[in-house]
């Protein structure tokens, strides 16, 4: 679920989770202070397991059936506690941030898949509602045992290899529980702890569209890579979640505004998002996402823009090297130029060889295409040939320049037809040959801005 409420008031539901000694407690306190200083109302939902276990329950004393019932009642209690805070957020007169100390899916890390599935069925629970629709964003703070071992130390664990190994295992399980949430961010230990906390706060602000100015150091960005098929067998991937995703672009009332609907789900369960992007005067894009009901989604579909094809994807979400990846496999009946297209995306502060080293080795990654307009979903969905349309948009990291894509007349160009571009059969030596607009030209039409986030 994305931020709800009127344009003047937001209610944002955040889950802060992580492995042992990951900075979750400190991060929660700092995040609370930061948003209170912005004038927001902040609620902190306590960890349900801590509340129950503080009453004298010891797992070592429970038999298997008692453990199962305890986990089931823990989840029922968690839902009720969270709902209490969510209701307070809905009635708040201020913008409201609700920080949940762990969330519903965290419990799946401590129970077998067979028992978890049985629990979901018997309570009529489903992951799309309780993972994707219940919370706006998930942030996982990676354990110090994974990348900052010298700082790993808790009251329960001394700095021994056994303690570190266990912490790493718990950290991975906690992160894997949330694979598939549309806005899931992993904050690793690639920086010192102060910057780790700042990156976490920055990550929340980015999703909310809050301009943080120079209050925090901006370190993380979205990067996009072209992947050459075929997709490896499922066994080559770590734990993953697959989703069916459909995008519809909508008619817009004015220029330089972009609107679209997203339908995302699995096993017949769906979530619906309405996204509007508007550029600021200084060229910075503002994005507002709103959770929709199925009825509202169907009503808004009547505003579909006939200038765009509907985009269909299979989206695979997975974790590699403490990095969360989304791989979009474009499928029919999208525009023919999307045939065979596979794009991999992640958010990271790394660059160069460090960035290269965290990428999945089992994928045939051709090259980085971050910000290249040939790989923008907005442009890929255009019905018209790119050489014959004024709707093609060029934008790169804050430059909101829209342009008519000029036809390539060079006989030596390696750019394929813009109707079916070379991205469909990319190899490691291909290049898109993007025709860049002359920024000093006075013939730049005032059209929709390109998407910076898909």
TrEMBL record:
This is NadR/Ttd14 AAA domain-containing protein. Residues 434-454 are annotated as: Disordered. Residues 13-195 form the NadR/Ttd14 AAA domain. Pfam families: AAA_28. GO terms for molecular function: GTP binding; phosphatidic acid binding; phosphatidylinositol binding. GO terms for biological process: photoreceptor cell maintenance. Residues 439-454 have a biased composition (Polar residues).
